[in-house]
Amino acid sequence: MADTIELKVLVIGAGISGIAAAKFYLDIHPDSRLVILERDTCVGGTWNSRRGYDSFWTQWTVGTAEFSDQPMARPPDEDLYYEFFRAKHTTKYLETYVDSHSYANRSLRDRIKLSVEVKSVLKRDGMWNITATQRQTGSQHIFRASKLIVDSGLTSIPNLPLLPGRENFSARILHHDNFGSSKILTSPDVQNVTILGAGKSSADMAYEAVKSGKNVTWILKDTDTTGPGFFLSPKGKGPYENAFEVGMTRLAGSFSPSFMNGINGWTSFLHSSKFGVRMMGTFWNTIDIEARKEAKFDRKLSKGFEQLAPHSPIFWQNCTGGLLNHEDFFDTIAENVTFYTGKVTSLGNHRVLLNTGDEVSSDALLCGTGWVASHLFFSENQCRELGLPYEAIQGNPEEKKHWSELEAEADKKVLNTFPQLADPPSHYEKSACQTAYRLYRNIVPLCESTVAEGDRSIVFIGHVGVGNYFRAVECQSMWATAYFDGKLELPSAEEQEKEIALFTAWNRRRYLSKGQRGNTMIFELIGYTDTLLRDMGLSSHLKGWFKDIFATCWARDLKNLKPEFIAKFGYDGVV
């Protein structure tokens, strides 16, 4: 019989989001009975020790990849590249962080239950009832909590493709999730490595395999795909040491047509006037041309390297992408990797067969094929009521009509404000099998949700596609705590719906296939976090108009928000 554990707060997930959410809630409510459930064997989510490998580097830089209350120790020079660093330092930082924060004589680590997978969630008698299973033993636990924080992330559950004949392959098939812990590249039995996928994880595995002395073949899909990812130089310009520092400025954010980055005279000029639109078109086209020129996709004597060229312009972000962490990446891949574009039709004994008729000899098949939804413990009906994606065909006709009308009206506003979004280039567009996220501020269900019962008892942290989760989830966690405690006055349900519909319509126009899920904010991170802080009336992160526009937003800029939050909302006795 399953034991039942009574709690004040249950947190699902011990990655960056779960750690941030638990930490800030306990900052304000240090005596609360709070537990964190983690399905993996270690903390850190994407950045945990199980997933790590030598050429796994961060996409963020020193000074931005940390929480505001605890700086990360600077990595040694050999682990730095334009201030980007090996992922193991983020892993170490998060491990240290959960040990160094204690409340009521219990550290964050003491509150984490590892290898516990949530199976179902049900709201009953004003409490969230969470059924979970210990993965090693199969024993079942039931947790009852008055508040639920869902931090299960976007990269928790691997998406493995259907591979006919995999039982005949007689070799290893691994998803990127298990690549770091597999040690497969040190095996003398593995000489021919095949990569599936077109994004950053595939690129990392291909590079690592080449550097390990393997014969590498990289297969790109020929249909139903947005194409290979954009891999950009990390180098900065002017006073900025790297590209990430540029991206972490409000000035850079203003170059993307977005409501979240503010509608003012400057952004209206850039994105609504004919001259501004042409100027921005030239700006983004220049970045696109420079990126392709640096890659030298047309180089001779390569083994199909030109097939790695992105299909759509960088502005639209229709494909995956990332910043390069190795100066020799393009040369290494072009000179050592054989490319095929096609579909895997079947697997044979150490063989991968394609619809082109090509046959690839393979001792290991490494899949950088993305992730599936990490909120599978909610039913379809719960997803609908909470504002999570669900199968579009499951919605009732009236609800579909309601959202369709809202989004159609919102789409008119998007195109009136940002006319350039009406004319995307020719591109592959993924069909939307599921609805978009419909969370207010990308955090909470609509206030009249029948599951949440309007009682402010559930939040979702980290369910957004941004370039720096540290800043995003630190601000989300403050907003969520204020929301839990009734400190935030939200607009009416009707106004919330209009804002959600506007964000959804804009997302689809701005980010094409990637925007279908309604949670993409590639160039909107600073605007998004500014919005959350403005909702709470907090301003200590601001540095004066000139720096606010041109200066990089560092983690340390948020360090005074906690005392400001406590004073603003009158939490007596909290320090």
Automatic annotation (TrEMBL):
Q: Which Pfam families match?
A: Pyr_redox_3 (PF13738)
Query: Could you list the residue ranges that cross the membrane?
Result: none
Q: Name one GO molecular function term.
A: oxidoreductase activity
Q: Which domain of life is it from?
A: Eukaryota
- Is Oxidoreductase there in the keyword field? yes
What keywords sit in the KW lines? Answer: FAD, Flavoprotein, Oxidoreductase
The entry's protein name is FAD/NAD(P)-binding protein
Q: What is the lineage of its organism?
A: Eukaryota, Fungi, Dikarya, Ascomycota, Pezizomycotina
